[in-house]
Design goal:
Blueprint: E1 2-5, H1 13-28, E2 34-37, H2 44-52, E3 55-58, H3 65-68, E4 76-79, H4 86-94, E5 98-101, H5 105-117, E6 123-126, H6 132-138, E7 144-147, H7 150-155, E8 164-167, H8 173-186, E9 191-192, H9 198-208, E10 215-219, H10 225-236, E11 241-245, H11 253-256, E12 261-266, H12 272-288
Parallel strand pairs: 1-12, 2-3, 2-4, 4-5, 6-7, 6-8, 8-9, 10-11, 10-12
Length: 302
């Protein structure tokens, strides 16, 4: 039995910046009420670690960031790494809240591209419906048209003016290629600004390039789009078994008993500590063929 640890793993720069900004905000405001408007990054253990130091997270799948803001009446509100609409910032300031913006610089770049292009035409935006990053982009203008699949491409208006095709930063390289090509067939004059962030790109390419691997373990939160995409790319690349697990305690004997070579990677918002536990547990399993429940030390997350 062999173990391959795929690189890179661990936090991307956007996640590091967001986490450091939240920590600094607490340090500078030790007694202030601080609220994260959604998960600061898509990992529940990171959120739990911040809750341990008194930073509340409010989130609901059926509510927009603007609607979540209704639940905050005082203190500091933190915009997550995924970004938010300008209306959120305006509303927060009107409520007398201090705003700390932890939006990833790659997401900010996409916002700028979209805002510039809608002055001259329509934008076709490839993203995941209900994802906060897509929510923020679509809110910019009714000239931004969200698509997630080929049916959405078919349903786009035929008369889009000077269309630009761009995308959510954490989408699959290979899925957006299919959608971009479909859009280019429909709109011969469309331009493309492919915006997969570099951290997502190199992780996806590393998984796609794996050879002679029969099992892939992706350590990441179920809400993390980039983690889910890594699992899907593994399956689409011919890896027989690919699993998304949140912690070492999600490992089962059924996952491991038949593997010859297992590769381990993680999403860009997954703490290195959680992935390291999985790697160590696999080494132990090879030696003993036993799985014991582990303790997750929240203090090691941030």
């Amino acid at each position: 039995m062999n173990i391959i640890t795929v690189t890179p793993r661990g936090y991307c720069k956007g996640v590091i910046n967001a986490i450091n900004l939240v920590k600094q905000t607490r340090k500078e405001n030790p007694n202030e009420k601080i609220t994260m408007l959604g998960m600061i990054v898509h990992n529940k253990y990171v959120v739990k670690a911040f809750e341990e130091i008194g930073i509340k997270c409010i989130d609901a799948k059926n509510k927009t960031r603007l609607e979540l803001l209704d639940e905050v009446d005082s203190g500091i509100v933190i915009i997550t790494a995924h970004g938010a609409s300008e209306e959120v910032t305006i509303k927060a300031k009107e409520k007398g809240l201090k705003v700390v913006d932890a939006t990833c610089i790659d997401v900010i770049k996409t916002h700028k591209i979209v805002k510039e292009h809608i002055k001259h035409g329509d934008v076709i935006y490839i993203g995941k419906k209900t994802h906060p990053e897509a929510e923020a982009i679509v809110s910019i203008s009714n000239k931004v048209h969200l698509i997630s699949n080929l049916d959405d491409v078919d349903n786009l208006p035929k008369d889009l003016f000077n269309p630009l095709i761009t995308n959510q930063t954490t989408m699959s390289l290979y899925n957006i290629e299919i959608l971009i090509n479909a859009c280019l067939l429909k709109y011969k004059n469309a331009k493309v600004a492919e915006e997969i962030c570099n951290a997502t790109r190199i992780r996806q390419e590393a998984v796609r390039n794996l050879k002679d691997v029969d099992t892939l373990l992706v350590v990441g939160d179920v809400n993390s789009n980039n983690s889910n995409q890594l699992r899907n790319i593994g399956l689409n690349s011919g890896i027989k078994n690919a699993y998304l697990i949140e912690t070492v305690n999600d490992l089962t004997k059924e996952m491991l008993e038949n593997f010859k070579t297992v590769a381990i990677t993680s999403g860009a918002s997954t703490p290195t500590y959680l992935t390291s536990q999985v790697i160590e547990k696999l080494k132990e399993y090879i030696e003993t063929k036993e799985l014991k429940k582990e303790i997750i030390d929240i203090t090691k997350i941030i």
